[in-house]
């Protein structure tokens, strides 16, 4: 590939900063997640302190894992792959660094303000308006630098992974800005520009497309670069990637309405959302199949290489949760699953299974390539894989169980036509599942601690010169 | 990345080669394509009248209730308590009549929620006594042993901060929530009157302001029919203490009015008949 054109010297400093920060965000985000999961199982853990009670801490968890962990992975892997796939150094480096630091300060800002109760109350968009402005500025800087780098590419074609990244950059700008429209009361409070049904529709247009573009298109872009690179195989099908790209770009936007089935939103909107949700399985599985089939001829690697295993299992989870998603997007299933833990389980099968595992795989890949070294302990990478996978499965199965049970208990009638259970009965029935869920979350947190430890050891081994460098084959 | 290009170029007559080797073209295509779905699904509801059928009875929150809503939001209550009842038999039995769009027409921000770790609150107003709410908010497990809700006893220790109330009402008024200049000017008296700390002095004025039948929304004056009697405001010391206004007063005042504005008519099928097929299938 290096024969196509001469390569610039890449800026790895910015990637290294994002990757290490991202791993730390993973540790913090899953720690807070484990804590709030434990609060639901054992409410005394709220410790009668408003700042750490569930309602204030839950957005700290969601925002830290999505924008802290996910954000720094996207920035880091984004800058890594755009340089490798264009053979050009990051464009506008000062703007790129501005993007990274503004993002970091935004995370610090919501770590402080959310426990103080300053929230926009829109899910996954809780930080107040001035943090929104910081994040939007960071995102714009990222977009400028990213497109600038693509414009400096040394070959005629733009790699498919970068198309997905562009889609993410544009769409996230739209949804973040429009959903964030508000009138400030002061620095601690603002009112949404929309009310009632309009606010609900705008919120879930944002909510589902934060999943669809931030957590899917962006991470699919990451997949399209790192899976073929790590497996050392070309992408399975060019045509499939083109089809997958345009259909995903068009279809995802429509499905947010399925979060509002049977609510006061006009029925035609919800039916449209349900129909598009079902159709969405085709682009989703197109991407999953394209990633999986890329492994053809390299399947032996999942036996020996835990980094490869992270990526392949991530794709398996992606396939599974994008099957579950359309199912839950239909009205009849949603009637049962909405408002229950099933939704939480679905989100985490995507987040812990797909997003976290493809990110972890890509992070290990980047660490070994950028420092030109094997990991300090290959065994710990393997242990991380099994601890993370076990934790994710505990979490997801617990939430499936509790979600379906909740849904069925709420709608159970006896032979006289009376409700069988009080709401409190259903809360009591959740206890074992909530305890199991917290255990699963704790395992995922342990996995991130192992990863951070292994990474710091690897970097210090490189500095001490005691590391094992990569083979020439791996460096290619 | 030469490998993936094999077989590329034209796809069913579309010169994809041109698109993927030209950054501005690719960028514009993507930017347009991702905008379609949102425009089609969100924009029409602002213009279609039947998206939010008009119902008599829905009034904006009083200043005290508005502060209660802000506390509801601050403590993240909406993360576990939805406010959107769906048209199912079990939900009707458990929570009451399904929620109508008009009921949240003044809600900046909407508070429908997405999860019921605790029960739905859309019609919790009047369902429990103030005493129950006080005890339940202080120590939830002392009245509902199965509950996993945090304790909120500190709410009655915090005097209500009313320094932002005026600005809140001004902001909402600028977005067509029908607060008149008179409503905004008298916010402080109204808070005291509703929480029962002024010996009933301001009660009549408060009731005149929020039990009225004529509202000006977006320049259009609406007057409810003569036969319709607006739901009376709850006016009392919600936290059981008439000496000061606390956050507990505000939150309970907010909870006690939830879902009480509309008087659902017996025998009227709001699902099919009242609003027609456009509203629900």
Describe the protein in words:
Chain A contains 16 helices and two strands. Chain A is 73% helix and 2% strand. Chain A has one domain (12-475): Cytochrome C Oxidase, Chain A (Up-down Bundle). In chain A, helix 2 (54-86) packs antiparallel against helix 3 (93-113), helix 4 (129-151) runs antiparallel to helix 5 (160-179) and helix 11 (306-329) runs parallel beside helix 14. Chain B is mainly alpha-helical and 281 residues long. Chain B folds into two domains: 3-45, no CATH class; 53-267, Cytochrome Bc1 Complex, Chain D, domain 2. Helix content of chain B is 37%, strand content 4%. Chain B has a two-stranded antiparallel sheet with strand order 1-2. The radius of gyration of chain B is 24 Å and the shape is globular. Chain B starts with 9 loop residues before the first strand and ends in a 7-residue tail after the last helix. At the A-B interface, helix 1, helix 2, helix 4, helix 5 and strand 1 of A face helix 1, helix 2, helix 4, helix 5 and helix 7 of B.
